[in-house]
Amino acid sequence: MSQSSTKNETVSSGTEPLILVDSDDNELGYMTKRDCHEGKGTLHRAFSVFIFNSKSELLIHQRAQSKALWPNFWSNSCCSHPRKGESIEQASSRRLREELGIFSSLKFLYKFEYNARYNDMVGEHELCLVLAGQTDQELTVNATEIQDYRWVLPRVLQEEMVKDSGLFTPWFLLEFER
Length: 178
Hints:
By secondary structure, this protein is an alpha+beta fold. It is 20% helix and 38% strand. The protein has helices spanning 33-36, 88-100, 154-163, 170-177, and strands at residues 5-7, 17-21, 27-32, 44-52, 58-63, 74-75, 78-80, 106-117, 123-134, 140-142, 146-152. The strands form 4 sheets. It has a 4-stranded mixed sheet with strand order 7-4-9-8, sandwiched between helices. Strands 6-5-11 form a 3-stranded antiparallel sheet. Strands 1-10 form a two-stranded parallel ribbon. It starts with a strand and ends with a helix.
């Protein structure tokens, strides 16, 4: 990791309530993060952020080894869940600060639903809103969330994904393809 500073701060837990939604993004209620990810997963709202720098490189990160789902996998710049009463804009700004120590104006790109199994016991079922932004700010990486990161040109990343897609989170593969 080549950042100039790191922090170790727990920013979420299995007991925090996630927002349950239907396929049209209508709120249905709340369930703990842990329960949402059991089995095939229960559909809940999430977001993924793509941060580019002025060289058109994309920031990607390797998820911390302690993550319950897809530890050590490479993923997009930042991804998480909004909290009860929190908009996607508020949640994505919060997580950029918590995970990367940065701020960026974000533009909504699209949303999609996906379901992915990590193993026989846990998986993801998310309605994911995808956003993009740009920054050249120095990162302050949260080591409880991120074990490594790098800036990469999209064409180089595409080649890596073709060569070994098993290194990347399933949502990142779907989002990057689109």
